[in-house]
Design brief:
heterodimer; A: alpha+beta; Alpha-Beta Plaits; 4-stranded antiparallel β-sheet; 5 helices; 10 strands; elongated; B: alpha/beta; Rossmann fold; 6-stranded mixed β-sheet; 14% strand; binds iron/sulfur cluster
Chain lengths: 219, 616
């Protein structure tokens, strides 16, 4: 049996990196007393996998991790135990028990939804949204391991709309084949609005999505 | 006045290294409503978050203060220099991690002094908080406290700190904050609050004492000038360690601390009597925790932290009465939870092969041994009761049990040292390597790694070597080079050494008086901070400070002091008497050993503290 765990990483912890977060979760699982499975081998560790690492600086509202179990446990009991073992800044939102052969969340990941608060020049950035969406292609400089690469990110922007005078929501590709970071989108909006430098912003990942834009944890 | 703003902080956090050092939100951090606490205490560690979070004392006192329903304790650490500069630029005051409250809003700001080279960080943190550095310039605002091993010679910090706590903090801390609470309620002035604090055993309020000097620069007189201040400040001792408060939960950091694990303090104090070792004298007498208490603490801590490692802490774990039982019980209990148990500061004279084997069942770490000196004569001088035979037996045992990484710690510049003693270090290293090859290939682990680490001897107060001078810088450098040559000829040894400049500065502060405070201030003004970090040590800044203050470092570091000289810390009763220390100093010079006092009292002075020192 495996447990899919939906948790929130609050804004205060946004600087906690992926590896540190993994370790924090592993320790939380250890102190929770739920029956967790260890890897074999010389340095045994917990077999926990995250659906998608969060960029440093980004909070997440509904992050997903998969926890293989060594014994049966009810969803309620698991959730209660884990909740008690997590700090207030890292609460467990929901859990779902699935069969061992249930596909890994990471493999089902397709896109992610974000809410972006633009902290400077919000009016200019938000005004650029409609015109950017009208474009057939949006070129942006993507930083990859093998150097910077000019990439068309338009096909990776599935949705984008203004929320209020400071914020907008968007859905961007996030899977092995194609990933568009909020940073790239902000670069494109900056260029579109003719601003010189990218304004400060805070992006929150609000939901991880699978095929047909179904929330990942429900697939 | 600097005003805190969460928004400006968030902005800064996006630009500095490792921002999660400053953001808290850790498991088991205690967050109480700030405005409802009757006494608020900012526990400051004058080094980085990673170093501070590894330290046991802060965990103990954080827990003890927060256990009082009327008190609150939050943490603050020395910001990394990039953050410190950014905060200064943005006029953002230093704040506590938990509630992000600027330090100047606390009733008490307390520093723990673990090593001398963190003193500039104390000044830097006060300044970042917008708190005037000198006590005399503070009419209101927090009371500045300090404790920890370096508080046993508080004088170099005397003008900056209002209240020093000397000795075990568990009981003294509660008395101190209760006293502040009472004074606050009664609406007492700052001066009267300090007077009330000075009445607590173990507390030293430097403003209530006067110092005068002889023409040769040595102390002429040191005396209290306020009725509230005792002439002799006696260190505090927790009589019963087994019932002393110990945290049931540790704050679990996100970013990895240097030591990120459960720590069980199995024992406090040491009876070996190594003559260079300050901790060994300061933490006397030996007090042990019972097996039941430790196992219960381990269980609570494991459930509260989820740590994958446990370590046993004491000055000499091998001497703990129930060591084997404890290690066996812990490894057995936690094997299925994959928790490793490690034994630091293992002393080779009490090496327990069985516990070694138990300890390595789960995970194998390097073996650390501290023979400290290379020849038997030198080890007799420092009273390190270890023979070459002990050492070789210990490493052979370890190699047979599958260890292959050995670290050997030595000191150079010890009193009476000759070239032969340096040669001895090389010989010892060679013998260790030979011991490895005598273990059959089928038994020993592959990949032998032997590291020799040589630190420079620093004479410390309340040790038999407190009268001795440190070698001068050129001599130390010569010896380091010589030892480097010697070890170069031993195949397969890595050689590490410490910055000799740092050891020299450490020596100045370790045995400094109030005049070293001027040097400290000047050095901080010259931009010195984070001196313990090689990349930040600004030696020129320090030398200029000595010059500008007209202070000769040799007066403090290298001068040999006489029997009759009034030492800056003589007003503190640290338990061991000056007469005992002098006796030991004389014996040292004759290379005469003093046996472990578990085998018979050596009359060090602790017997004067009723009911704490029992012969076994
Ligand atoms: S009083 Fe005696 S037994 Fe106690 S610590 Fe001192 S020497 Fe050891």
């Amino acid at each position: 049996m495996k447990m899919l765990v939906v948790f929130e990483k609050k804004e205060r912890l946004r600087h906690v990196g992926h590896l540190d977060l993994m370790r924090a979760m592993q320790r939380a699982l250890r102190r929770s007393g739920v029956p967790i499975a260890f890897s074999q081998g010389f340095n045994p560790h917990l077999l926990v996998t995250f659906a998608a690492p969060l960029s440093v600086g980004m909070p997440g509202l509904r992050e997903v991790m998969e926890v293989p179990l060594s014994a049966e446990i009810s969803e309620e009991e698991f959730k209660e135990k884990l909740r008690a073992a997590l700090p207030p800044e890292l609460p467990c939102v929901a859990v779902r028990a699935v069969e061992d052969r249930h596909p890994a969340p990471m493999a089902q990941l397709f896109a992610a939804a974000y809410r972006v608060t633009v902290q400077e020049n919000a009016a200019e950035i938000l005004a650029a949204i409609p015109s950017l969406l009208e474009k057939e292609s949006v070129m942006a400089m993507k930083r990859t391991k093998s150097g910077d690469k000019l990439t068309d990110i338009r096909p990776m922007i599935y949705e984008m709309k203004k929320v209020d005078g400071q914020r907008f929501d968007c859905v961007l590709a996030l899977c092995e084949a194609a990933t568009c970071k909020v940073e790239l989108l902000m670069d494109a909006l900056t260029a579109e609005s003719k601003l010189e430098t990218r304004p400060r912003y805070l992006a929150v990942r609000t939901q991880l999505l699978g095929k047909d834009f179904t929330p990942l944890e429900l697939l | 006045m600097k005003v805190f703003s969460a928004d400006r902080l968030e902005k800064l956090l996006d630009t500095v290294l490792k921002p999660s050092r400053y953001t808290g939100g850790e498991m088991n951090a205690v967050v109480k409503p700030f405005d409802q606490a009757e006494v608020t205490f900012a526990f400051c560690f004058p080094d980085s978050y990673e170093v501070g979070m590894s330290h046991l004392g802060i965990k103990i006192l954080y827990d003890i203060i927060n256990r009082q329903p009327w008190a609150l304790c939050e943490r603050s650490f020395m910001p990394w220099p990039d953050m410190a500069d950014a905060m200064r630029r943005e006029e953002l005051p230093l704040f506590s991690i938990e509630s992000r409250t600027p330090l100047d809003r606390f009733d008490i700001v307390g520093f723990t002094l673990q090593y001398e080279m963190s003193y500039t960080n104390v000044l830097e943190m006060l300044d970042l908080a917008g708190i005037p550095l000198y006590s005399r310039d503070r009419q209101d605002g927090p009371i500045i406290m300090a404790g920890g091993p370096c508080a046993y010679n508080p004088e170099p910090l005397a003008p900056f700190v209002d209240v020093f706590q000397i000795g075990d903090g568990e009981e003294m801390m509660v008395e101190a904050i209760a006293c502040v609470r009472k004074c606050k309620k009664a609406g007492l002035s700052r001066l009267d609050t300090l007077r009330a604090l000075a009445g607590i055993e173990g507390i030293y309020v430097p403003a209530f004492y006067q110092v005068s000097y002889n023409d040769d620069g040595t102390l002429a007189d040191f005396y209290p000038v306020d009725d509230a201040a005792p002439a002799i400040v006696r260190k505090r001792i927790v009589r019963d360690l087994d019932s002393a408060a110990y945290p049931e939960a540790f704050v679990v950091p996100y970013t990895e601390a240097i030591h990120d694990r459960i720590v069980l303090e199995i024992m406090r104090g040491c009876t070996k009597g190594c003559r260079f070792c300050q901790a060994g004298m300061l933490y006397r007498p030996v007090r042990e925790r019972s097996l039941e208490t430790l196992l219960a603490q381990a269980e609570k801590l494991e459930n509260a932290t989820g740590y994958e490692e446990m370590s046993l802490s004491s000055l000499s774990s091998g001497d703990y009465t129930h060591l084997t039982e404890l290690v066996c019980a812990l490894t057995e209990r936690y094997a299925d939870r994959k928790i490793s148990v490690s034994l630091p500061s293992m002393r080779i004279d009490s090496f327990v092969k069985q516990s070694l084997e138990e300890a390595q069942k789960v995970r194998k770490s390097g073996l650390t041994l501290a023979p400290e000196a290379g020849t038997q004569r030198m080890r007799d001088v420092i009273n390190k009761g270890v023979t070459e035979e002990d050492l070789i037996r210990a490493v052979t045992d370890a190699f047979e049990s599958g260890w292959s990484t050995v670290k050997l710690y030595f000191m150079i510049g010890l009193p009476t040292e000759t070239d032969e003693d340096l040669q001895g270090i090389g010989n010892l290293a060679r013998d260790v390597i030979n011991a490895y090859f005598t273990v059959p290939r089928s038994v020993r682990a592959k990949g032998l790694r032997v590291t020799c680490s040589a630190s420079t001897f620093v004479p410390k107060p309340f040790t038999p070597f407190q009268w001795q001078g440190q070698d001068e810088l050129p001599t130390i450098k010569e010896k380091q080079a010589r030892l480097g040559d010697i070890l170069h000829q031993v195949k397969g040894v890595n050689f590490n050494w410490h910055e000799p400049e740092l050891s020299m500065l450490e020596a100045c502060f370790a045995r400094g008086d109030r005049r070293m405070a001027d040097v400290l201030y000047a050095a901080w003004k010259n931009g010195c901070r984070m001196d313990g970090w090689t990349e930040f040590l600004n030696y020129e800044g320090w030398m200029k400070a000595f010059q500008d203050c007209n202070v000769d470092p040799a007066f403090y570091a290298n001068r040999v002091r006489g029997e009759k000289e009034l030492l800056p810390w003589d007003f503190i009763d640290a338990g061991v008497t000056k007469a005992f220390l002098w006796r030991e100093w004389q014996k040292a010079q004759r290379a005469e050993v003093t046996p472990d006092c578990r085998k018979g009292c050596q009359g060090c002075g602790l017997k004067r503290f009723e009911g704490v020192c029992v012969d076994r």
